[in-house]
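quick one
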Amino acid sequence: MNHLSSLDVKFIKGIGPKKAELLTAELGISSAADLLRNYPNHYIDRSKCYTVSDLVGEMPYAQIRGRFVTMNVVGEGAKTRLTALFSDGKRSMEVVWFRKIKNIRESIRLGQEYILFGKPTRYGPIWQMAHPEIDVPNTAGAREGFRGIYPLTERLRSRGFTSRNFYVWVQNALEGRSITDPMPASVVMSRSLMPLDKAIRQIHMPESPELLEKAKYRLKFDELFYIQLDIVKNSRVRHQSTQGFRFRRIAEWFNNFYNQCLPFPLTDAQKRVVKEIRADVNTGRQMNRLVQGDVGSGKTIVALMAMLMAIDNGYQACLMAPTEILATQHFETLNAMTAKIGLNIELLTGSTKAARRRAIHESLRDGSLHILVGTHALIEDNVTFANLGLAVIDEQHRFGVAQRAKLWRKNICPPHILVMTATPIPRTLAMTVYGDLDVSVIDELPPGRKPVTTLLRYDNQRNGTYKAVYNQLRQGRQAYIVYPLIDENEKLDLRSLQEGYEIIRQTFPDYNVAMVHGRMKPDEKDHQMQLFISGQARILVATTVIEVGVNVPNASVMIIENAERFGLSQLHQLRGRVGRGADQSYCVLMTKYQIAAETRKRLEVMTSTTDGFVIAEADMKFRGPGDIEGTMQSGMPFDLHIASLATDGAIMQQARQAAESVLDSDPELTSPAHRDMKRYMQSLTRRTADWSNIS
Ligand code: ADP
Ligand code: MG
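structure w/ adenosine-5'-diphosphate:
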């Protein structure tokens, strides 16, 4: 592949400098290798010919065999067009061209047999095809069998580029050339991969569906293999070289907490994760561990026990949360849980007063403060620890990579990092995005929890829904009503929230209603939250600010308005706010009456399962991994052209194993058998900064 990477695409027959420039600008294709890696995005079966009477509804493409009967130029100036009647022998359709009229008119002969290929559109009783591809049957250029359709941009299309052009250029690029394969022969053999040269030819010009599948597998495998090779190699280097604090002892703080303060027996999953952390921090290497645990699985206490390990060894710990509400709640929970052993814990957020802030800085520097809980305020530059040994980050996905890098620099030797996420990132994605993070999973909920009953309801069933809420309130319970924010800055959103608030107040006149949203002043927000947490307000009307972490076990029902606007993972997070007590809880997903079948299917995932992993996988399938990747994209060393993080998890595992065994046998990739592979991998790397050192 390397020699094709250095061959400028303009030298491919049929392209030339002008088209090459457009290809680079529009599709990033600048070398022959880029052209070959620009795969068709779908295929059509060109073995089948339709007749005009066969045409129905919304066919994306159809192929029709027949003859042109008439051909006329109509209109004037910019509106000039060429129209023709094309007959399949029984019925005719209209064919129309708006560009290249002269060329087409001269090249087509009436009465000769052609195969037209294009999108049929219906105008009343007449079918029409605009700018079809035209082949003469049984000639060299004519395509039968499977045919790839290449993605085009608007601009390329308006300049007259067609999918067929790509097909021809690819053929020209491949003609007389063979593609060398940088993949070690051992991998190709042991995984029974299709040879690269064949795979490239088959992906562009498949001879059969079976060969196409094998070609796709090979090319996906390649992309994922080089990613895994890069990740595994970096991670091995880091494991060997990054020194970390060694927490040798488990001593009084931990033991006293365990013996005197433990509020409930730990679940087996919690115990296992605590042990995994214990083993990590005792190796002398820096820990970089992700704890995945569904909402309510009890990550907080695990974090606390990890922090106690740090304190037992003379280090400080910090716990960082994404919102002030959540940081405050963590602070209160930790204080309550450790009341008997008297830890020194402080809270630092954006609204901490100056005097308090100074006192906190003081106790941080003199080492008397054990644990600092806070928002991102605690990674500000003027916050200095005497000896930070462990940083816990809750709800990882809200923090960017750069913020984590700041934490990393809070001590001479980087502190151990424990990242806790309630968004269960599917393993396939975790393996890639967090390739060098170790992953622990709390895959068990504390005993006695009843799964939340989830219902899908339409606007016209609103009264029944309110009745059910009323029943819960009468039994002393509390309710959440959640509105989506389309755009945090839009006045419109706020208005719909306020209207909702008024309706709820009128519908439930006997109960106090609190309201929180992102544009409130922190004081006011806290006040409203406090009303709900204390039970004075029985209903909370809110935007997604409540999504993360809020714990009100008495709340047993949640209505989510315009549920179709939320992603599944977000719905799951929201739903996690109810079902925290021992009683049966309910979550109602409200949508407008008419929703697309796809939307309904998506929402039915919520009504059919409460398993966060299943939901996260489904979310990836429906939306693609894009949203989840977000800022994590920087963790991906190369672009993917054909493999999908959402759906190719199994291939990824294979690729991972293959990469590991290559590195087992040749850690530095210095063997001659791996020379091409190494060079190819280096040519792919497009990193600007080395993020691999950061959690
Ligand atoms: P999350 O993983 O969502 O952060 P939390 O740590 O907030 O979960 O725990 C959710 C609730 O479950 C809290 O009220 C906590 O006290 C309780 N909890 C955690 N672990 C256990 C356990 N082993 N047994 C009973 N209750 C538990
Ligand atoms: Mg939590």
